Amino acid sequence: xxxxxxxxxxxxxxxxxxxxxxxxxxxxxxxxxxxxxxxxxxxxxxxxxxxxxxxxxxxxxxxxxxxxxxxxxxxxxxxxxxxxxxxxxxxxxxxxxxxxxxxxxxxxxxxxxxxxxxxxxxxxxxxxxxxxxxxxxxxxxxxxxxxxxxxxxxxxxxxxxxxxxxxxxxxxxxxxxxxxxxxxxxxxxxxxxxxxxxxxxxxxxxxxxxxxxxxxxxxxxxxxxxxxxxxxxxxxxxxxxxxxxxxxxxxxxxxxxxxxxxxxxxxxxxxxxxxxxxxxxxxxxxxxxxxxxxxxxxxxxxxxxxxxxxxxxxxxxxxxxxxxxxxxxxxxxxxxxxxxxxxxxxxxxxxxxxxxxxxxxxxxxxxxxxxxxxxxxxxxxxxxxxxxxxxxxxxxxxxxxxxxxxxxxxxxxxxxxxxxxxxxxxxxxxxxxxxxxxxxxxxxxxxxxxxxxxxxxxxxxxxxxxxxxxxxxxxxxxxxxxxxxxxxxxxxxxxxxxxxxxxxxxxxxxxxxxxxxxxxxxxxxxxxxxxxxxxxxxxxxxxxxxxxxxxxxxxxxxxxxxxxxxxxxxxxxxxxxxxxxxxxxxxxxxxxxxxxxxxxxxxxxxxxxxxxxxxxxxxxxxxxxxxxxxx
Length: 631
Hints:
This protein has 631 residues and is mainly β. It has 7 helices and 41 strands.
């Protein structure tokens, strides 16, 4: 058991009743054969200087009811009192009420914080002052500090660097029980140090922390570049008409919350570092998130070196930007100019809720991406039953008679279905033969199929195409006689690392009138399972080495018709949605009506909560189909 030593009940940690901790209990020291050499060891071991005054017969308040040591004989050079000769722990009894030891050491230890009930912990003695955070600085140690200074209890231990500190001594607190009257009574190590970096110093914010008002005229402002912005931008303190940047060190959502609340801008959607500045005046802002003003938060007001500015994006729609300040993208690796809509705003890509996709905004997105104009029926996200919860764009383009230059945007946190757009220039590269991963290559644009010329297609391009079709790797490609006289007027140059053929660079219009034919490694299998009849059951896909169900979301009768035709089971009678009460990974399919087998439809894999079963009109169906249809 760890032995400890303290002086208890005096004016400070260096005078009082001598007590030792042994076997989980505090006890007194008896005065029989007491010597000045013993006191020298005690004062030095406690970091309290040298012995000055002692009393060997004194009655103090509430001494422990245990006498641990007696007949102690020190030389004065020992490191700890229990290194001296004595007759054993608790061996020789004495009157613990009157025969204990009280001593005064020469050192006066003063504990303070760099601010009122908050700040860097400073311990001052006759020669130096300092404190080191150490690895064990935590709530018990912080509580001792707050209690000793009559500041309540520890409210929070702030991040390193919030408070500046200067000291010539590194005092590492090795651990407090939390019951000590003085921090100096905790286990500690004292070493000389010429410099204590701010990020190593111990600090605390106590429950009785006072909010200090700034005597200057100060307000918080947000700047977008040099222009003041209502609810978005880099955080500045405007002091007497001069904007002072706030550094992003330790800048977090609680700090942003205080700023948004003070400006009447709702809550923070995003906090992040901004551009570099050499003109910052505030660093290490520390808020709890409940403050009504950022000036009620703690902060380091010493001018820092160069840093990145703290920025915040608040939830309220009072900040607006012209549409020309953002850029769009359409996320879909299978199709060109068709997919989920995202907008780039203030350094981040955001999903767009389908409900805010006006006709003007959709047309602008298509035009910006050189994809023509938006086709009717856009807005609903395809191939997913999930709704997004995150930062979404809100727009002011609801009235279609507005010019796109009149649109304004902001951000809002909500859960919604992600928007989708299909432009007039959309296209998909696909196969239509009876094999899912082998055959002539076509391009589908809107509702027309076009033959893809074999000109310009090398191994790298075909490798990317096989990956794009989710068919594994390239095995072989060649040029064959075409089946259609309509030709796709594009070819592609790939480096082999692309995940979609649309990421490759378009090259010159091909002149060769022979069609590209490819063969890839994979051969996905789609079948109906859980029945002895191959024309009835749960739709299952075996691909990439595993069998998985097909999600029922957006599965329709056309999908069923295509599957039944692929399985030589005639037409489709019905399909059923099954909800097993859990989420699982499944395949999603999006068909165009031009496919010969299900795998040629656009497909993805993601989580799902319902799978699909299908009834085909095969000849064995009549005896078993009613159960599925009627349940």
